[in-house]
Amino acid sequence: MQLRALNEFAFEDSDQQPRVNGHNGAVVIELHGEIDLLAYQRMGPLLDPITGGTASTVVIDLTRTTFFDCSGVALLVRAHRRTAARGARLSVICTHRLTLRILRLTGLTPMLSPVPTLEKALEQE
Length: 125
Prior knowledge:
Elements: H1 3-12, E1 19-23, E2 26-35, H2 37-51, E3 57-68, H3 70-85, E4 89-93, H4 97-105, H5 109-112, H6 118-123
Parallel strand pairs: 2-3, 3-4
Antiparallel strand pairs: 1-2
C-alpha cells in the first residue's frame, strides 16, 4: 500500500482524530490512539497553526493514547519549540507509565513537565 493511500485511510478513522477545545484561554488538543509515524504526518498540519497561533497556553492531552513512539517524541518537541519561540507555554497531560518512561529516557521530562490532569496543566500558568 502506498503512503498516500495510508494517509487517506488514517483520516477515515474518526475515533483516532484529535479533538481541539478551548478551555480558560488555553487550547487543548486531545490525541487518541497510536502516536506513531503516520500520526505524526497527520497531526503536523493540525498542530502547527495551533502551536504557532496566539494562545498563551497549548495543552496536549495524551491520556487517550494507546501507543507512543519516537514519532510522538518528535511531535512533542516540535510543539514545544514552536510555542516557546513565540513566548507561549506547552503543557503535556500524561499518565501512561510507558509514555512517561519514554519521556524520562529521552530526557524530555524536565522540559515538558508532564502532569496527570487538565487542572494541573492549567495551574502551571
